[in-house]
Amino acid sequence: MSDDIGHQKRALRAELRERRQLLSETARDAAAAGIRVQLDALLEHTGARAVSCYLSATTEPGTREFVEHAVGRGIRVLLPVTRSDGLLDWTVASADGDIAEGLFGLPEPVGELLGPIAVNDVDLLIIPAAAVDTHGMRLGWGRGYFDKTIGSMEGCPPVYAVIYDSELIDEVPREIHDQPVSGVVTPTRTVPLAPRRR
């Protein structure tokens, strides 16, 4: 990573993290309700029967309502579990699944681990992001788990990043290993994006 790009990424992440922390509980609840509506509509549009998602942390746009609702509708939802080697294991979400603190203090499911290749069986990936630009480039939180996952998949299905409305921006700093997404889901809209070719 060039020092300049690394600095740009750290500065942008810090700004976005601070903005998220300033949101009121009411705003977060409204965002979670909007995310559920948008993700439900995305499932209908894509016809996905198996998806990967994640358990949102307090300051992230809420995905938990969506996960619970999808499981209740018979959708197979895989949730990530971080590993120290930089890869993700996966477990199947259940209606009464337990949650524990993961490797980085974030909420993760407790359940039978399926290994990194389990995600190859999903029809749609729903992933976290700090921001996404209008070319489909995603800025993550700096650990590279989802970039590695997407980059390793053959025939990768559509990938949608969940962000707040203000986090779809003109451009994010990018490096060669950064993976684009197919679109974004915000509390008010779902935006398909045309990723910039490398």
Automatic annotation (TrEMBL):
Membership in a protein family: Belongs to the 5-formyltetrahydrofolate cyclo-ligase family.
Enzyme Commission numbers on file: 6.3.3.2
GO molecular function: 5-formyltetrahydrofolate cyclo-ligase activity; ATP binding; metal ion binding
Chain sites annotated for binding ATP: K9, R10, A11, L12, R13
NCBIfam families: MTHFS_bact (TIGR02727)
Record-listed substrate binding positions: L55, E60
Domain of life: Bacteria
InterPro entries to which the protein is assigned, alphabetical: FTHF_cligase (IPR002698), FTHF_cligase-like_sf (IPR024185), NagB/RpiA_transferase-like (IPR037171)
Cofactors demanded by this protein: Mg(2+)
Gene3D superfamilies from the UniProt entry: NagB/RpiA/CoA transferase-like
Gene Ontology terms: biological process: folic acid-containing compound biosynthetic process; tetrahydrofolate interconversion
SUPFAM superfamilies membership: NagB/RpiA/CoA transferase-like (SSF100950)
Catalysed reactions listed for this entry: (6S)-5-formyl-5,6,7,8-tetrahydrofolate + ATP = (6R)-5,10-methenyltetrahydrofolate + ADP + phosphate
The protein, known as: 5-formyltetrahydrofolate cyclo-ligase
This protein's UniProt keywords: ATP-binding, Ligase, Magnesium, Metal-binding, Nucleotide-binding
Top EC category: ligase
Organism for this UniProt entry: Microbacterium lemovicicum
